[in-house]
Amino acid sequence: MLVVVTGGSGSGKSAYAENYIDMAAGNVQKYYIATMQVSGEEGRRKVERHQRMRADRGFLTIEQPVSVEIALQKMKTGKAFALLECMSNLAANEMFGGDCIKPGKEVFQKIINGIEKLQQELTCLVIVTNNVFEDGITYDETTMEYMRVLGAVNRRLADMADEVTEVVAGIPLTIKSGGVR
After folding, report:
1. pLDDT digit string, tens, across residues 28-49
2. Distance between CA atoms of residues 6 and 92, nearest Å
3. Phi, psi torsion values for 60, nearest 5 degrees
4. In terms of CB atoms within 10 Å, which of 35, 72, 106, 138 comes out highest?
């Protein structure tokens, strides 16, 4: 099963996704696939806040900022649930990591291929992502390309997903249903 949770910054989407996977997984193994490459004090504070939020919840954390399918090598086989936090970081890492900026189509395909591999091996994959293009600002071409890639990834994930929820001010709004509650 694939569940996509989207929303703006600070909307409560991470807390919702963690609660969702807690309820869905029960006593089954839960993994937290962390995609953020931590830099600076603000980044460290954000990671620490998220770690506090999921303390004592039974998640095994896998730091996987690129090539998310590699996380499977760090998981036990069999029934498992995973939370991928978050697609926005993964897209940025894939696009801007390395010596040069990678083309959007290449980044899109790499991300979707990785998610398909995770989805095939997991009982349930919950993906947290961000809304883009909501501020109405036109950015430089590189940023706009990143936003287009993330938007394309989000649309493809929503199409693949059994369930899509947008969290607005802490309130989950079901956009697409069919998952297990």
Report:
1. 999 999 999 877 888 778 777 7
2. 17
3. -100, 120
4. 35
With vertex at residue 49, the alpha carbon angle to CA 148 and CA 127, rounded to the nearest 5 degrees, is 40
Instruction: Give the C-alpha separation, 127 to 114, whole Å.
Output: 12
- What pTM, to 2 d.p., does this model score? 0.91
Pick from 16, 15, 3: nearest CA to 115: 3
Q: What letter does residue 26 receive in the DSSP assignment?
A: T
- Please state the φ and ψ torsions of residue 104, each to the nearest 5 degrees: -55, -45
How is residue 44 written in tokens?
């460290």
The CA distance from 38 to 48, in Å, is: 11
Asked if 178 and 119 touch (Cβ cutoff 8 Å), the reply is no
What's the rounded Cα separation, in Å, for the pair 35 and 97?
Answer: 12
Topology adopted by domain 2-175: Rossmann fold (3.40.50)
Side chain identity at residue 60, one-letter code: L
**Which pLDDT tens digit goes with each residue over 69-79?**
999 999 986 78
What is the amino acid identity at position 81?
Answer: F
Whether 74 contacts 116, CB under 8 Å = no
| CA–CA dist 131, 147 (Å, integer) | 9
Before 86, cis peptide (omega within 30)?
yes
List alpha helices for the chain, DSSP H.
Answer: 13-25, 40-54, 87-96, 104-121, 141-160
